[in-house]
Amino acid sequence: MGKLYGPHASATKRHHRDTTHKPITEVLEAFGWTVVDTSAVGPTVPGFPDMLIGQGGITDMVQAKTGNEPLTTFEAEFHRTWRGRPILILRSREDAETWARKERHKRRQDSALEAQKRSLTPVVNRRLAPLADGRYRGETPEE
Q1: C-beta atoms surrounding 61 within 10 Å
Q2: Quick one: which of 57, 61, 120, 137 is 20 to 30 A from 79 by CA?
Q3: 96-115: average pLDDT
Q4: CB within 8 A of 72, min separation 6: which ones?
Q5: Distance CA 46, CA 139 (A)
Q6: Which residues does residue 130 pair with via DSSP β-bridges, in sequence order?
Q7: What is the pTM of this model?
Q8: Whether 77 contacts 59, CB under 8 Å
């Protein structure tokens, strides 16, 4: 497809926000995500997603689309060549809410599994660990 990035790639194209941009932002913020509007980056980096979102050490990119509107050629190319986490395509307030709920549920499950692993890890209490001769700390040898 050739080079898509650089100062002359799409210098005349104005950025625009899809009509779903604001409702999606509101939902993600309500679920505790930080949302940064990156829709103005498009003229500099064609196809760059509309939002960066982050929560709990996770950063994702979101492409807001309206209805069944397809990705533009630049967006499709950016998505195809992006090496980070897959870019989310959210088309409505409901899409955003469904995704945010699933993500929250997944993170709670991961957290529960991590806690379970920690609880199954043996903990050695040095105060109660036997010494080389079989005694415990603080015990005097039997005579």
Answers
A1: 19
A2: 57
A3: 88
A4: 47
A5: 73
A6: 136
A7: 0.68
A8: no
